[in-house]
Amino acid sequence: MSQLRIGITIGLHHVAETLWNNGIKQNAVFLAEALRNCRNVVSAVLVNTTAIAITQALPWDLRRWPTLSFDDAKDNIDVLIELGGQIDAAQTEYLKRRGVRVVSYCCGFEYVHAMEAVLFGKQAWGEHLFVNQRYDDIWVIPQVSHISQSYFEVLRRRKARVVPFIWSPVFLDACTQDLPHAGQYRSRTGPRRLSVMEPNIDVVKFCLYPAMIAELAYRLRPYDIALLQVTNADQIARNNVDFIALMNQFDIVRQHKAVFLGRHGTPGFLARYTDIVVSHQWENPLNYFYLEVCWQGYPLVHNATLCADLGYYYRGHDVEEGARRLIEAIDTHDGQSESYRAHQRAVIQRFLPDNHEVVATYESLLEQVISNPVC
What domain of life does the UniProt record list for this protein's source (predicted)? Predict the structure, then answer.
């Protein structure tokens, strides 16, 4: 079996940039943690592809997650996994001359991003688009494969394969260590505080359907709902006349039981202000947010098909079913909150970096990459 040195790219923009504020960088860390459990991996380091210097100012443990510049890493890796930072044609050529395999790890909704960039004037790359044609393999996580895999394959001129999604509570634990009860759900009396925390930056995760679920539940059980809180929505709630007009159709808004807030970190907002989370996705059937909410034991009303066994699942865009699941959470969650959290964590085990199937799959993927000639 091979003994491989792995580099995983990130793209830093500040000398003291945190890993906590960016899902892509966390993905790189989770992948590194999983690969270190592979029998054919001797090391896995993060490789920064920007000009930002790597110093002790970085606020993470560089012994646990070694981080190097591309120049410092390029002669000491056997496989470079391009994940959070792109290498250019000259860097690719250098690696290829050394016999290094280059893998593209795709964890974003690139087709959606491209579509919105073109249709809505959100310039993404302009005339400077560089599409690397020399990948030895393309790995795509499951939640983006159904909508973006063909996009990757056509532009990069090779077939892609779907690989296991990985998540770890390591960052969540760090963020919650100083919160009461480590930020985990605790039962409370009285009407429920509902939270909707969609990013509201594209069509994939938008707050309208969760708000509609809350509205239907409120019409049925107004005295059981204290407040609907919609984060990442202060700008549209103040400035977007269409959004304002829609929200003003809702009883929960007209009766002053809804607030539209700015950005908040998930763990702290859950611990301080939340009893139930209501979510909706469109072609985004698995992400960190769902796992964070459920790991901490909060009831999650959601429609994410790749984790339908978590939380309180409803199908598709069926807001009536979503409202029924929300009312079910209101009525039953506190009576089972301890067993619920334990079950959620047991289910999430399949995504952890030390899961046997996850590790075995990545071992096999790496062996396949190494066994083929360099592209």
Answer: Bacteria
Q: What pLDDT is recorded for position 311? A: 98
pLDDT at 292: 97
Query: Is pLDDT of 22 > 80?
Result: no
Please tell me the distance from the alpha carbon of residue 15 to that of residue 31, in angstroms, as a whole number: 23
What's the domain range around 129? 4-168+352-371
How far, in Å, CA of 183 to CA of 368, rounded? 42
For residues 139 and 196, membership in a common domain is answered with: no
Q: Which residues of 265-293 are buried (b: 16+ CB within 10 A; e: fewer)?
A: ebbebbbeebbbbbbbbbebbbbbbbbbb
**Can you tell me the distance from the alpha carbon of 184 to that of 231, in angstroms, rounded to the nearest whole number?**
20
What CATH number is associated with residue 115? 3.40.50
CA gap 213, 240 in Å, rounded: 21
Are 331 and 259 within one domain?
yes
- Note the pLDDT tens digit of each residue in 115-134: 998 998 887 777 788 999 99
Is residue 127 domain-shared with residue 222, that is, in the same domain? no
If asked whether residues 155 and 207 sit together in one domain, one would say: no
Pair (313, 364) in one structural domain: no
| CA dist., res. 28 & res. 43, Å (int) | 14
Strands, sheet with 312-313, edge to edge from the N-terminal-most edge strand: 258-260, 225-230, 192-196, 276-278, 300-302, 312-313
Better-predicted residue by pLDDT, 3 or 127: 3
40 touches 363 (CB < 8 A): yes
Mean pLDDT, residues 308-331 taken together: 98
Q: What is the pLDDT of residues 220-267, one digit of tens each?
A: 999 999 999 999 999 999 999 999 999 999 999 999 999 999 999 999
Say if residue 241 is in the same domain as residue 102.
Answer: no
Same domain, 236 and 149: no
User: 39: helix, coil or strand?
Assistant: coil
CATH of the domain at 301: 3.40.50.2000
Kindly list the strands in the beta sheet with 101-106, ordered across the sheet, starting from the edge strand earlier in the chain: 67-69, 41-48, 4-10, 79-82, 101-106, 137-140, 161-162
